[in-house]
Amino acid sequence: MEVPRRDILKGVAVTAAATALTQLPAAGADAAPAVSCVTPGGRDFPKVGGNYGNQNYSALGGIHHGNVRRLGAAWVNRIEGGLTTGNNQSTAVAVDGILYLESALGNVFAVDGRTGETKWKYEQTRGAVTRRGVAVGPGLVFTHGRGNWIIALDRATGAVAWERQITGYGNMEKVAITYHDGLLHVGTHDSVRAAALALSAADGSLVWNFWGTPGPGEFGNDTWEGDSWQTGGATPWMHPALDPELGLVYWTFGNARGNNSSQDGSGRGGQNLFSSSIVAMEIKTGRYRWHFQSIHHGIWDMDNVMAPVLADVRIRRRMRKIVVYGSKSGMYFILDRTDGSAPLGIDEVPVPQEPRQKTWPTQPFPRQGPWTETRVVDQPLGTSVPGDPNRAVPNYVQGALYDPHWDVPVLSIPGHGGGADWSHQSYSHSTGLMYTGFGYVAAAHSLTETSNGLRPPGEYQTGGVVAVDPSTNEVRWKRRMPYSLGHGNGVLSTAGDLIYIGRPDGNLLCLDANTGRELWRFQTGAAISSSPIMYEVDGVQYLAVYAGGTGIPYGDSAPRGDYLWAFKIGGRVPPAPTPAPPVIRRPVSGPPVEGQAVANTVVLARTYDPATGTVGATESTAVNAMAPTHLRVPAGATVTFVNPADNIQVHGATQFFEGLFDVRLRPGESFDYTFERKGEYFFNDSYSPRPTGKIEVY
After folding, report:
1. Which residues 6+ apart lie within 8 Å of 477 measured at CB?
2. Mean local confidence (pLDDT), 114-128
3. Which of 187, 256, 319, 647 is in Cβ range 3.0-4.6 Å of 175 for a Cys bridge?
4. Is pTM, for the whole model, over 0.90?
């Protein structure tokens, strides 16, 4: 059935405003007249997302299919002098030929877009926090400081103009700042309750706030059981989109988190608004206008908390002002941004239930279906390796999107670290397509897991790029990649019918926007967890990207750096040395242990202390309950797997995905296997698949 209109709107419809397009004003302008959110950037790339509609599109077309192979680096700036640690999720912006960027240390840089010279540097005084981008307003640059500070810097010098601490609304760090018409739109995160905030750009004072979990007397509070709203989470992790003509700002809110973890819905019955929702609010007042909830009463951390993308597209012969919403779940919800209606149809589909979790009876699906797979693949062991990207790690209960759980882990896809997640997505005026980088990162959920679920050790974490036509919500093309591209790997599309995306191995790629065919690549030296941008100086068009790296989803194996690169046709700066690539298989917990230290023996269902060499005294189903989890032996060595006599259960060792062995051992039994070939061989326990080990053969 189609979603009833009243269930989508829950509020007053917005009257369409004038449709005349005006150019995005220069950041130094004294006034900010109403502008179109769909006007693409050209000479400047003035905000994270490119324009108010977060289209990540450049109208510059000087770099195109005919000359992209001559694209080379014009300059590189190691902004922190060669830093190789930290988390770098900040995307640069370009205004009047100057690039503004935050580093892993929280310092802010102004860099000459033509020469790469650092013009000024703001030294952060409050320590490092994860940042995703500054805002540039009239004469000022705005950034975050640890401890919920908002900091305004003089755009010409980097000197502090003012600072203000904002308390009482949750942590205020990760969300990129958005400037518009005298207001700063910022979001809080990692809190029991979080909010979208509008602050005065003049002094940082609070103008309005909108809670992700409504309080008593506020619309939506009755969707939370009892007082569960107080710890409901619903965090706005990503910056909003704005439509100045309609006078609306669009925020997306994350998963419900309270009652022990995001996987436990037993104490927060109801739909849990505004978790996993997009909410349209009035820019000036924060007044609620409409919302759409993409996941009701979520228990999977599968929130669609993306930076929404606004576009004007023709749907069934009628021009519609749309907002494209949806990320982790691997599907797009195409909504009319004036009133939240669904021009292509959205169905509430019955889903399996778990009464103890108080699951909601239906979940919304776009009528056209998702753009990625939504069920793990049961591929037999011993077949091709790695096999299907959605291949299930053995011994888990296999599930689909929105299958419920309780005390037994249920493995599903795309996973709370998969889908499009929080990467910036792009709408191309040239092709009319939406582009996103995505990940395949299957996750197991149950109340035995802490936090937001278990990404099983040994699984492959890969991904790709997909192009979707928002006028039909159908996939135009999909290209698989060896790495997950859902964690900050933003897409830039351009008038040259090209798209650019960075990978965790340091490669910046250029793809044909119509087909996904690779046309060009460049090694930047570090993982890219930001969006490429395009700008123009003195008539020369430049592509720029920050290569710094972050730990999601590849941990410390993702190479780090502080490389700010700019490219132009005919650039001659050579690529960076190729770093060690990320480890795409989810690692086991625990350090490597040499075989001779433990007599080439793995004890099943027991933990191990590598500092003392002590095997745990009690039976365990913890993820690290292989003693040891990581054993190193030479080729030709024989490894013994033993189930201790004082264990109670029958435990096993299932090797995946090569299928070298799959044994069940009663208490007191053992099994020997000789590893003849070099490589890494994962295995888990058939009794409970959570305990996972690896034999590294050298």
Report:
1. 466, 467, 514, 515, 516
2. 94
3. 187
4. yes
